[in-house]
Every structure is written in C-alpha cells, then in structure tokens.
Design brief:
Elements lengths: L7 E5 L3 H11 L4 E5 L2 H10 L4 E4 L8 H8 L8 E5 L4 H9 L4 E4 L4 H17 L13 E5 L3 H10 L5 E5 L2 H5 L8 E5 L10 H7 L4 E5 L9 E3 L5 H11 L11 H13 L5 H7 L4 H12 L3 H18 L5 H7 L5 H12 L3 H6 L6
Helix pairs in contact: 2-3, 6-10, 6-13, 11-12, 13-15
Length: about 350
C-alpha cells in the first residue's frame, strides 16, 4: 500500500558526532542521509532527489561556500539552511547571497530548528523559497564598541531569536550591510574622534532602532542607557525594539545578578563563586538558573567563553594559546576540546576562515 514519500533531508557536515545528533533529532520525521564534506554532498545531489539541505560552512574537503556556489546555478533551487559555528555578518550575508534560506549558528535550539525545517519544506512545496525570506524575520543586533562579555552574553541568551554581531569601530560597523541590521547599539564613549562620523553611521543604518550607551549624542532619536551597562537592562531594551516573539524573561534577582556579573567577569566565573556572590548554594543556584533560562549554568558559562573565543580568533586574529588565557581556560588543548563540542570544529580551522574586506 503506497503512501506519501517522506521529505528527504541531506546533512552536510564533517563532524560524525554532529551528523549523528541530527539523525537522532530528525530520523522519526524525515528520510535523512548525510555527507561528510562538500564533494560528497555534490555527488549525492547528482544522484538523489533532496528536499532540503542542512549545510556546514567549515569543512576540510569542499567547504559550504563551494556547495552554495554550485547549487545556486541549479534550476531546482534546493532550499538550504546553513548550520555554522561562524557568527559574523560577512559569513551570514555571503551565505544568504549565495542562496541559503536561513543561517543558524551552532549550538542551536532543537525545537526552533525543527520548526524552521518544517516551515522551509512547506514554503518550498508551495512556491520557490525566497532567498533570505526566513532570515528576514530575525532581528540582527549590531553592537559597536561594547565589551566582549556583553556581546557573548547576548549571543547566547538571544540565539533563538536574534543574530548578534560586534564591531569595534565605526568603520567596522559601516562594513556591515545597512539593511541587515534592525537594532544598533552604540557605546558613544568608545568613539573618541570617530564620533564626528556618527551622522554617516545613522544614515547607513537608517531603518535600525538606535540605542546609545553613555549619552545621547547619536544624531537621531534613540534609547539612552546609562553606565555602568547591565546586560539584563540591554536585553530588555532589545526585546522592546524587536518584532520577533520572545519568551518571557521573568528572571529572579539572583539570576539577573549572575547574568550581569558574567557579562563583565565571564573569564573568571565559577558556580561556587557566583553562588557566594548571590548568597545561595551552588546546587540551588544551578537549579534556579536552568529553570529560568533553560540552560545549565556551567554550560552557559562555557558558551560565553566559546563565543568570546570565536570573536577573538576570527576578528582579532589572536593566537589560540592567548585566546584560551583571555577567556579563562587552562590552555589551547582545553579550548580546542570545548570548541569542537560547542562550535563543531577546531579553533585553527575556524580561524582560517578570514572574512574579506567590504
């Protein structure tokens, strides 16, 4: 007795453990096959009908960009969701320009990825998938001049709802496509003489909601936050400016204190030290943090360090040993083990993907 064919999904990633995790997540609902690199993926595409591809960018043989270049010339217009450890504007913009329908950074929320896959398959069966259509509903938060710990905190806490990008200078910010950012947060104190080109910045991001840290010298209507900046205060402002549905952030005072403290001291954080800070036991604090944020406290602290390390490796080009020390890890080997687990690749491979200039 015949039935409807299940949708066939191709996973392209060179990490066998990551492919296995996706199989466990998707096998009940889809026919899932996988490829270990871009070359193998193109061979599969030439011989099998694929309904959707989940594509990594950082692979040893035939990276994801090469796959995207090939598939965008294919008249079948296969919908592709990029799953990557790269969290920067250039990589995302390039992937979307080459035809990806969405860009998701590792690690990701499983329920949201399932929903994204379902929506993409429905959309592609009804009409050709609009390039960037799904991603356009996600706010992009651009932080300019803000501390690395604040960037790491927002990246982890807002991962399901927003993509967070960090720029050190006005010129770095102007290299980000203006139409891609929906919320612009500027630490005016960090600009110095560069404050003279703030009008150019506001014109470049003319459709973005503006948030100024320190004072209101942005030449446009903006929300002003005073210093010292608290991560949770900025989190609330971003939520208020976003049109995306956010879960309720009913954090208790002790969890708020932990989030704000780690926004500044993520490299020195430990559960025992944080518990002492908020006058709680380590077990009780860990239980509360997980209940309110959905993340284990130790995992949250590790993810902060990994996001900070990603930025230092890719944008600042620092050596792996130096990065490990800056984010509070024992050595390069310790960083490498955690990086593989949470970013899906090794630090050296991640650093070799260097963004070209604008």
């Amino acid at each position: 007795m015949g039935g409807c064919r299940r949708h066939r999904i191709l996973i392209v990633d060179d990490d066998p453990a990551f492919r296995e995790a996706l199989h466990l997540m998707l096998d009940d609902d889809y026919e899932v096959i996988d490829a270990s690199d871009g070359v193998e993926a193109l061979t599969v595409l030439a011989s099998r009908k694929i309904d959707l591809m989940l594509l990594d960018l950082l692979m040893v043989h035939g990276d994801g960009f090469e796959v995207l270049e090939h598939t965008r010339r294919d008249p079948r217009k296969l919908p592709i969701i990029v799953l990557s450890g790269l969290n920067n504007a250039w990589a995302a913009a390039t992937a979307m320009r080459l035809g990806a329908v969405d860009y998701v950074t590792k690690p990701f929320d499983e329920d949201l990825l399932r929903k994204m896959i379902q929506d993409t398959l429905i959309s592609s069966s009804e009409s050709p998938a609009p390039i960037g259509g799904l991603d356009a509903r996600k706010p992009v938060v651009l932080l300019m001049g803000l501390d690395l710990g604040v960037y790491a905190s927002l990246t982890v806490l807002l991962r399901p709802q927003c993509r967070v990008v960090r720029a050190d200078t006005v010129m770095d910010a102007l290299a980000v496509p203006g139409a891609s950012s929906t919320i612009l947060v500027v630490d005016v104190r960090s600009l110095g003489q560069a404050a003279a080109i703030l009008p150019q910045l506001c014109e470049h991001f003319q459709n973005a909601s503006l948030v100024a840290i320190g004072d209101g010298r942005l030449p446009a209507p903006c929300t002003i936050l005073q210093t010292p900046l608290r991560v949770t205060e900025l989190l609330g402002v971003i939520r208020g400016h976003s049109t995306t549905s956010f879960p309720g952030y009913g954090y208790s005072p002790r969890v708020l204190s932990v989030i704000d403290h780690l926004g500044t001291h993520y490299a020195e954080g430990s559960v025992r030290r944080l518990a002492s800070l908020v006058r709680s036991s380590p077990d009780r604090l860990s239980e509360c943090f997980r209940a309110e944020t959905g993340l284990k406290l130790k995992v949250y602290m590790t993810q902060l360090r990994i996001e900070a390390a990603k930025w230092l490796l890719h944008q600042a080009g620092e050596k792996i040993d130096a990065v490990a020390a800056r984010v509070g890890l024992h050595d390069a080997s310790h960083l490498s083990r955690l990086f593989v687990r949470y970013a899906g690749t090794r630090p050296g491979a991640y650093r070799r993907i260097v963004a070209p200039g604008p």
